[in-house]
Specification:
The chain is mainly beta. It is 13% helix and 34% strand. It has 2 domains: 197 residues, no CATH class; 236 residues, no CATH class. The strands form 5 sheets. Strands 13-14-17-16-15-18 form a 6-stranded antiparallel beta barrel. The longest helix is centred in the middle third of the chain and has 14 residues.
Length: 454
């Protein structure tokens, strides 16, 4: 029972999809979902056109899920484990929300420290990069935010006091990050230097495939020196996009791009290593530069397997956030500098993970008097299927039906309604189910229709 605005949640696991074959709920196999008419308890054909019967008939329907249990009776007394799992009766007229949440992959925070044609990187000078790493992982690891100032020293001046190669500064910052015993657990650093540019990409719309040539026309030759792992930039190319395959003049990109035809603005950067990079020297060579230090947030926490799983185990809900600034000797980040800090990719936690959903399933089962056993031997004896119903590392879709059940009487004398939320976890969206529900709600005079919740 629930009271407004709280809604009691019932979770059904429909990883085996929806059953549209009319018949008894006994035909539902493990993980199958059926839309059942309450008047005769028959599964409905989702390809059909439902009609709301109103008060003249039985307007209710409910959802049923095939049981995952392989045995129906445990011990001499406890039975009925293979019975289908059912929601409360749902009146289409009293549905207040019908929506689906789609899974999304997590995204790392990526920050770039770039330098372009800089003529003020002086020799025999120290340049400082202030790095702050924030978020739940850093706070749990250190009990405070992670911060560090990295010093990079340019080579001694020659007789003409020529400028220094800024790539050498970026490489020193990179090495300090990757060699730090703590910082390297949260941030991965790489340096990319300009490799080839001035070539065109053929027109493409939201595609990971890009055809290129080395002129602004459509018949140029393919640029040389293209390789997997290089970073590509230009108009229509998302930030932090890399080449994942090269086949003749066709590139496969790590992100879908929308490029206007014959755009002579594409540039490719190649990773450089401290061990092999030769610093540029002289009066002019260091002044013509195009390089970037790429900082990627990454942290992996300890995760226990299913055998030792406990619902009380911590699981991460916040991504790493990186804040970088080039500062002067006083720590002032507002000092004019050739180095530019840009967020290349915003962090995103992701959603729809089984790690979260399995805990909701445990709670839902507890309401149904099926407690979760922390002892793996007891889970085996009691045929507990929770950890196999859902995969903790898989991402799922979830349908939500929010409805109310009016009270016909109330001891307090106040007429109200209890609110319930039916959550159906599925591996993929089902068009027939969505159309069936929308048609049924419309037939009941209900203006609620399926929505996608971000």
């Amino acid at each position: 029972m629930a009271y407004f605005p709280h809604a009691f949640q019932k979770m059904l696991v429909g990883t085996a999809g929806f059953n549209s074959t009319p018949g008894s709920t006994l035909t539902l196999t493990a993980g199958q979902i059926g839309v059942v008419r309450a008047s005769d308890h028959q599964i409905q054909n989702l390809a059909g056109t439902p009609t709301y019967t109103g008060s003249s008939g039985n307007p209710l329907f409910y959802l049923a899920q095939g049981s995952f249990h392989t045995t129906d009776k445990i011990g001499p007394f406890h039975g009925g484990y293979k019975e289908t799992v059912k929601s409360k009766g749902i009146n289409p007229k009293y549905v207040s929300a019908f929506y689906v949440t789609e899974p999304a992959a997590p995204v790392n925070e990526v920050v770039g420290v770039s330098v372009l044609n800089c003529t003020t990187i002086a020799c025999d000078t120290t340049y400082r990069l202030r790095l702050d790493v924030k978020g739940s992982p850093a706070l749990r690891f250190l009990t405070h935010n992670l911060y560090q100032t990295l010093d990079a020293k340019t080579p001694c001046c020659d007789s003409d006091n020529n400028n220094a190669d800024p790539v050498g500064v970026l490489l020193q910052w990179k090495d300090q990050i990757n060699e730090s015993p703590i910082l390297k657990e949260f941030v991965n650093a790489k340096v990319f230097n300009f490799k080839v540019g001035g070539f065109a990409g053929a027109a493409t719309t939201n595609s990971t495939t890009l055809t290129i040539d080395d002129t602004s026309g459509a018949t140029g030759s393919t640029p040389a020196n293209l390789a997997v792992g290089q970073m590509i930039t230009g108009a229509g190319i998302p930030q932090n996009t890399f080449i994942t395959a090269v086949s003749g003049g066709t590139l496969t990109l790590s992100k879908a791009a929308t490029v206007a035809g014959n755009t002579v603005a594409l540039k490719v950067y190649e990773e450089v290593l401290t061990s092999s990079y030769v610093l540029e020297t002289g009066a002019s060579a260091p002044d013509t530069n195009d390089a970037m230090l790429v900082l990627t947030g990454a942290y992996v926490d300890t995760t226990f397997g299913n055998c030792s799983f406990s619902p009380m185990d911590h699981y991460e809900l916040e991504p790493i956030q990186i804040y970088a600034a080039v500062v002067d000797t006083e720590g002032d980040p507002c000092q004019t500098s050739c180095f530019t800090v840009t967020e290349l990719q915003s962090a995103y936690q992701g959603k729809g993970f089984g790690e979260t959903l399995i805990r909701e399933l445990i709670l839902s089962k507890r309401y149904a008097q099926e407690p979760f056993q922390t002892d793996p031997r007891m889970r085996e004896v009691l045929d507990d299927t929770t950890l196999s119903d859902l995969s903790r590392t898989t991402r799922y879709f979830a349908y939500h039906i929010l409805h109310s059940v009016p009270r016909t009487s109330n001891p307090s004398g106040t007429m109200d309604a209890d609110q319930y939320l039916v959550k159906v976890v599925v591996s993929a969206r089902n068009t027939n189910f969505e159309t069936y529900m929308n048609t049924l709600l419309t037939s009941a005079g209900n203006h609620v229709q399926l929505a996608v919740q971000l």
